[in-house]
Structures are given as C-alpha cells and as structure tokens.
Write a structure and sequence with these properties.
The chain has 194 residues and is an alpha/beta fold. It is 32% helix and 19% strand.
C-alpha cells in the first residue's frame, strides 16, 4: 500500500492495542480492505465475499486470515469464525454497508450490531477517503502515488447496557452505530478536507 499510494493514517492512537475490537469502515472502492489491512496497527480479519476466494487469491486471502462468507445466506461457518476472532481478542473487520457503494453509511445491514452485541467488543470507526475518484479512466485503482486518508475514530460500545440481544435491541444498536459512523465520517472529511 505504501509503495503504490501515499496513505496518511490519522488517529491510529485510538486503535486499542489489545483485546477484541470490531473495525467498521466505509466502503466505496475495492482497495479499501487492502488499504486498511496495510495500514492497521494490528492484523485484521475481514469478512470477504466467497467470490473473491478464487485462483491464487484463495490461498493468499486464507494465509492472511481473511474469512470467506456467503452473502446470500446466513453463513454459520463464517459467523462462527468471526466470533472466534473476537473470542481470541483479535480484530474483526466489517464493511457494515455490506458491499461497495457511496461509502457514506446511509444503509447498514444488521451484521455489525449482531457481532457487537454478541461479543461485547467495542466498535472502532474508520473512514477511508480518496480511494474512489469519480471520472477516472481506469476506475479499478486510484492513481499511483495518490494520497489516501485512513482516519480512525473513537471506539464505542454499540449496546445500550442492558445485555439484550433481541431483534429490537439489534435494530436499536444498528441505529446507534449508524449515527456514530456517520458522525465519524463527517469529522474525517472535515479533518482531511475531502
């Protein structure tokens, strides 16, 4: 990542040095996951769609601890593997929007709230800015040596303190998470001028 682009990492001191944590990032470009893996102070285990696990990419993704997930169904194997990462005190990476898009946290899926409430791990917001550039002739990659900002926010608890894991508790946690992630993204944009 540092050889091809010029990532600027802000707020890395907010990243807990140990213990379970869920890294929640915006997702507007294919490079966002690798950029976070390459700039994170700790190893990250992302839930990655099963379609990415093909050819030589399959053994590579597995060797760096990425978790294959079938996004079309409730993938119990992937869910168990992700919870295992948190139980061992690791970092689970999730793009809560579920797929690439505007990267603005406008629509979140419930998976992040589920993992946060089930594990009790704090959520660490992160914004990747500058990876998606409208009007690029080659949309697959940002221009070489372009600056990409990675901005870590303050970790927070997604639950309401009740310990409940009901459907209504998950929905309420998703709304709290969305508010915090949206606020972090706005602050990251102000800080970086993007």
């Amino acid at each position: 990542m540092h050889g091809m682009w010029r990532p600027r990492v802000l707020g890395a001191w907010r990243f807990p040095s140990r213990g379970a944590v869920i890294l929640a990032g915006n997702h507007s470009h294919n490079i966002d996951g690798p950029m976070l893996i390459g700039t994170s102070p700790r190893p990250i285990h992302f839930l990655v769609k099963k379609q990415a696990f093909v050819g030589p990419l399959d053994p590579f993704l597995r060797s760096i601890g990425q978790i294959e997930i079938d996004r079309e169904s409730a993938d119990r194997t992937a869910i168990g593997a992700a919870l295992g990462v948190l139980e061992r005190g690791g970092v689970l990476g999730i793009f809560p929007e579920g797929t690439r898009g505007a990267g603005d946290f406008a629509e979140l899926r419930g998976g992040l709230a589920y993992f946060a409430l089930r594990s009790g791990a704090p959520v660490l917001p992160v914004a990747v800015l500058g990876s998606a550039r409208p009007g690029r002739v080659v949309r697959d990659l940002p221009p070489l040596r372009a600056r990409i900002d990675v901005v870590f926010g303050e970790p927070f608890d997604a639950g309401d303190g009740s310990g409940r894991r009901t459907r209504s508790a998950l929905d309420a946690a998703t709304l709290r998470i969305q508010e915090r992630l949206t606020a972090h993204l706005a602050e990251a944009r102000r800080t970086t001028g993007r």
